């Protein structure tokens, strides 16, 4: 199990993104998670490719772009050209998921599929063998700072079993309500990529908060699993 910490800039001070990202990197960030919202698929609007391009210039770690948008196929190429190394799309937003996953891979990025809390894991059965990672939402998408949904822990465990059944070692990314209280259980359940926003960027010391979260995750990984 390789733990990766992905601070979400959704919770950061957008007037000082560069310094906030730098502080998170010093705390051990492996990725920078970028939430893209369109005000249609989710009830919020955030950023587009120009901001991703600017972020690419201020960080050395991969950009993990989470598209919470309708018709993501129209914008994937622009986000990859802007600097996205990983792109995830929602199973709830697409009719032809295999085609979209193939498109992301053809552009040279890692292809992830995201799933909302109320969506059954069965919707991923036919794509489970093709994805580079699965992003499991542990809150309803659209806003930062929400409380972790406890059912998510068992869903991580079931998802890991599904991926293992098809012989895919793709990591599970979890997004929503991840903090020092929730990180241990989700890591033990099988999550390896940990998206955290408020727990890092709302802290008085961003570097220390990222370091503490990473340490807690690594201790959970070392202590046992699933």
Write the SSE topology.
Blueprint: E1 4-7, H1 17-26, E2 32-37, H2 49-58, E3 63-68, H3 76-82, E4 84-90, H4 97-106, E5 110-115, E6 133-137, H5 152-165, E7 172-175, H6 183-189, E8 191-196, H7 198-201, H8 206-223
Helix pairs in contact: 1-8, 2-3, 6-8
Short key terms for the protein model shown above:
alpha/beta; 8-stranded parallel beta sheet; 35% helix; globular
Provide a compact summary of the structure.
Helix content is 35%, strand content 19%. By secondary structure, the chain is of the alpha/beta class. It has an 8-stranded parallel beta sheet with strand order 1-8-7-6-5-4-3-2.
Rg on CA atoms, Å: 16 Å
Average of per-residue pLDDT values: 95
Largest sheet descriptor? 8 strands, parallel
Sheet-strand content, in percent, reads 15-25%
- Figure out the total of helices: 8
Q: In order across it, which strands form the biggest sheet?
A: 1-8-7-6-5-4-3-2
Helix content: 25-40%
Low confidence ranges: none
The rough form would be described as: globular
Topology as a string of helices (H) and strands (E): EHEHEHEHEEHEHEHH
N→C terminal distance: 12 Å
Which class of secondary structure composition applies to the elements? alpha/beta
- Count the strands? 8
């Amino acid at each position: 199990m390789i733990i990766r910490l992905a601070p979400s800039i959704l919770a950061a001070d957008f007037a000082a993104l560069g310094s906030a990202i730098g502080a998170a990197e010093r705390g051990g960030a492996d990725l920078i998670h970028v939430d893209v919202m369109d005000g249609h698929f989710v009830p919020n609007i955030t950023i587009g490719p120009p901001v991703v391009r600017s972020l690419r210039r201020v960080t050395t770690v991969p950009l993990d772009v989470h598209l919470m948008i309708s018709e993501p196929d129209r914008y994937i190429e622009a986000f990859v050209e802007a600097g996205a190394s990983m792109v995830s799309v929602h199973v709830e937003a697409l009719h032809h998921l295999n085609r979209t996953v193939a498109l992301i891979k053809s552009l040279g990025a890692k292809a992830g599929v995201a799933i909302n809390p109320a969506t059954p894991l069965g919707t991923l059965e036919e794509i489970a063998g093709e994805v580079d990672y699965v992003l499991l939402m542990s809150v309803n998408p659209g806003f930062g700072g929400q409380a972790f949904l406890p059912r998510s822990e068992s869903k991580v465990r079931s998802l890991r079993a599904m991926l293992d059944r098809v012989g895919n070692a793709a990591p599970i990314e979890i997004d929503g309500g991840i903090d020092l209280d929730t990180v241990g259980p989700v890591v033990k359940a099988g999550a390896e990529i940990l998206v955290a926003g408020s727990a890092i960027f709302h802290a008085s010391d961003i570097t220390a908060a990222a370091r503490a979260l990473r340490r807690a995750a690594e201790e959970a990984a070392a202590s046992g699993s699933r």
